[in-house]
Amino acid sequence: MRNSLFLHCGWFLIAVIAFVTGSVNSSRDSSSTSGKNDTQGSRQDNRSSSSLSALGQTSESKTGQQEIPAGLVNPGTTAGLPTTARQPLSEWDIEELGQIMAKESNPLRRRLAFTRLLQGMTAENALLIREQVKSLRPESSEFKDFHYAWGAIAGAEAVLNGKKTREVDMDVTMAGWASAEPELAFNWVNDLPEGDRARLKGAMIAGIADNDPAAAAGYAYQLASMGDKDADRMLGIVTSRVLGNGGHLEASAWAENLPDGAMRAAALDRVAHDYVAHDPEGAAAWAERFAGQAHNARVIEEVGDEWAERDPVAAITWLNSLDAGEGKSQGLSSAFGEWAKRDPTAASQHLVSMPESSDRDSAISGFSRRLASENPQAAIAWASEINDASSRENALVRAGQSMFRRDASGTREWLATSGLPPAAQKQIVNPPQSRR
Asked: Do 234 and 205 touch, CB atoms closer than 8 A?
């Protein structure tokens, strides 16, 4: 087996040496041939030399190895993006690099060509470079990276160019600008007409969050102080960025340090959703600190609901271990709803074994809600067992509406003996339109 391994390694080294040797010889052959061409050929060769130089492949070190091209980030950058090139790109350079991007089969050379275009981009030549980029798929990383970099360099000019293009590029350009000049971008967006502002503020907040989540959260709270109804959604964008960059552990600590209120609760709920997907037990242990806090009840509910999708028994066992509170009640309702979808027989057997309590009422409410769409008569039977009068009426109305959509005459017969007040009966015979 060891001999086989050495044999494979030997063939691999031979292939690498052959490739490098071929590349060097090819470069030398091209150089010797170009000296024999006429003026037009020399001009074309200069263009090729320029583009190859842009990829860092025209000179060799003393060891005979090709130089490695410089990385994307250069000294004197703004927000980690180049503001000036090491060497200006001519129009011919840009066209040649664009041709390499379009026709080169080697993905590494294509990426090097694109990187060199970004290195050489300025506010003045960005439109020329965009001509080489616009044929890429808008969802490709190169298309997005170019517009992000352009936004960081040119600001409003780059963003407004998106109004004149057919491609979807305005949002990512806005994010790039906001990452580099957050305050300027924030003020510019807030001075826009309402339609444009609504479209771009999410990208603006996302761009700020890329470099400084704390500052982005501050801007989201500033929007809230201005009465912006989307402020909590803006903070949700920041939370998603923190989750994407730092994971649920870092995001949970970050969200806990936000100011108390509905926006913090929404951010914690978003973190809980991600946390329980990766580590249900860890998420449950973290969420316990919010038990009994009415303003953070959504955290408990989210963990219970998401965990019940995977392991309803474990989720409900955990919820039953918590102190009484809104979070526990909502969590039991959501968890039994998930269990009813997964295994209604097992869920109903567990309900039968539960002693009468507010927790059992919450559990039946969630179970009945899920059951109503499949079997409204059974949902009505279960809803009737809820002790709390208000909760029982709400559950009966939901189940009755589902039954009315299937069997209007049968529902009216049931209502005659249901004992429900007239207002509740009116809700049942006038159900909201069913959503698909």
From this structure: yes
Read off the pTM. 0.70
The closest alpha carbon to 397, from 417, 368, 375, 374, belongs to: 368
- Percentages helix, strand, coil for the chain (3-state, rounded to 5) are 75, 0, 25
Give pLDDT tens digits for 54-98: 454 433 333 333 332 333 333 333 343 444 445 668 899 999 999
* Ordered DSSP codes for 297-329: HHHHHHHHHHHHHH-HHHHHHHHHTSPSSHHHH
| Tokens matching residue 172 | 């990512």
Q: What tokens were used for 127? A: 């439109």
Please, is 211 exposed, middle or buried when counting C-beta atoms within 10 Å of its C-beta (0-12, 13-18, 19+)?
middle
Per-residue pLDDT reduced to its tens digit, 243-267: 999 999 999 999 999 998 889 999 9
Domains of the chain, by residue range, sit at 282-393
The dihedral over CA atoms of 107, 113, 116, 118, expressed in degrees to the nearest 10, equals -80
pLDDT, tens only, 13-61: 334 334 434 443 444 344 444 444 444 444 444 444 444 444 544 333 3
* Cα 352-280-318 angle, rounded to 5 deg: 35
| Stretch 130-147: mean pLDDT | 92
What is the dihedral angle through the alpha carbons of 8, 14, 17, 23, rounded to the nearest 10 degrees? -100
